[in-house]
Amino acid sequence: MKQPKPWVKPVLELGPVVLFFVIFMLFREDSVHVLGRDYSGFVFATLVFIPVLVISTLIMWRLTGKLAPMQIATLVLVLVFGGLSVWLDDPRFFKMKPTMIYLLFAGLLGYSLIAGRNWLGAVLGEALPLTETGWLKLTRRMAAMFLALAVANELIWRLMSETSWVWFKTFGLPVLLFLFLMANAGLYRDHALEKPDGDKPQDGK
């Protein structure tokens, strides 16, 4: 299947989040009347975000012929928790959604360590070829990171303003994930698999 242009994937992944942020900032002080009901700016932004995410995910699947497990899990949880927020007009469910996602990923990675399965390598192996030891270390670190993000999300939405949480969700979480990836540059280098014509990988680092 033909690969989409490099800019298409970031637009499809980030577009719905940016749209949510823009709509929230425009209507955060208002009550929006939709189909006979009045919604807060936050819930209205959630109402718009859900179908946009569904459409962008379907476009991604159509273009690439596959979806990553993280994309599928995110879509399902958005439908569940976002749908509850809209149905009950209660923003708390949507704010808890990142917590559920990160706990899910932390749990799956933790179980893979206990079961001796390299699930992270199965998902990212083509893009990031590492030795067995490298995958073990990265799995531990990512499990800890997801736990930390779940705790951070809970603290921020419960203790800070709604606007603060939206800024954190839109910009803070991506920055933290990027910093995590950069902080592990040494691991990628030390445990990278050698090219086929090179020496065998040193797996004991």
From TrEMBL:
Pfam families to which the protein is assigned, alphabetical: IspA (PF04279)
Q: How does it sit in the membrane?
A: Multi-pass membrane protein
Keyword check for Transmembrane: yes
Q: Where is it located?
A: Cell inner membrane
For this UniProt record, the keywords arranged alphabetically read as follows: Cell inner membrane, Cell membrane, Membrane, Transmembrane, Transmembrane helix
Coiled coil (UniProt feature): none
Q: Which GO terms describe its cellular component?
A: plasma membrane
> Can you tell me where the transmembrane regions are?
7-27, 39-61, 68-88, 100-120, 141-160, 166-187
HAMAP family in the record, alphabetically? Answer: YciB
Q: What does the record give as the function of this protein? A: Plays a role in cell envelope biogenesis, maintenance of cell envelope integrity and membrane homeostasis.
The UniProt family comment states: Belongs to the YciB family.
Provide the protein name: Inner membrane-spanning protein YciB
Instruction: Provide the species name.
Output: Paracoccus alcaliphilus
